[in-house]
From TrEMBL:
It comes from the Eukaryota. Residues 191-202 have a biased composition (Low complexity). One of its GO terms (cellular component) is cytoplasm. This is WIBG Mago-binding domain-containing protein. Residues 18-33, 45-61 have a biased composition (Basic and acidic residues). GO terms for biological process: exon-exon junction complex disassembly. Residues 19-45 form the WIBG Mago-binding domain. PANTHER family: PARTNER OF Y14 AND MAGO, PYM PROTEIN. Pfam families: Mago-bind. It comes from Cercophora scortea.
Amino acid sequence: MPSQPQPTKAGIVVDESSGERQIPESVRPDGTKRKAIKIRPGYRPPEDVEVYKNRTAETFRTRGSGPVPGAEGLKNDKADQSSAANKNAKRREARKKAKAVGDNDDAAASTSEKASGAAQPQVEAVDEVAEKEKKVRNLKKKLRQAKDLKDKKDTGESLLPEQIAKVIKMNELIRELDALGFDAEGEPKASEAATTATEGSS
C-alpha cells in the first residue's frame, strides 16, 4: 500500500500519480463531505510561506540567553554598577565640598567688605542714582504721552477713558518730577543743574 504523502501546513497534498496539488476531501462534524479542492500550480498559501528570519535581529533577540562572542570582559556587571554608583557618590561629595568652600569664600569676602566699609555704600549710591534716572525717564515718557493726548483732546478728537485718565494724572506727574528735581518739561531745575555741574567738575 502506497504511503500517504504528508500534507503541508495548509493541508495541501501532492497527488503522486498526476502531480496535481489539492486539499483532499474531508468529513465535516455534521457528517457531510467536503469536496477535494484543486490548487493551481505555483500558488503558495500564506500558511506555507516561510517566515523571513533576519540573522542580525535573531541574534539581537537571543543575546541575553547565551554567551555573546567578545563579551568575556563583561562578566562582572554588578561590579560595574557599583563602580558607577561610587562615581556618582564621589561627584556628590565633590559638589558638597566645593559648595562649602564657596560659602566660606563668600563669608570671607563679606567680612573683608565690612572691614573696609567703603565698598558697600559706593555700590548702593550707584544703584540709587540709576534708580532715580530710570524713574525720571519713565515719568518723562508718561508726561509726554499725557501732553500728546491733551493736544488731541484740544483739537476735538474723542479719547478713550484710559486716555482721559492719563490726561488727568498730568499734574501728578509734574509734582513727582518736581520732587525729583526736574521741571514740568522734564529738564533738571537750575539749582539741580548747578549741583550736577559742580559734581561733574570735582
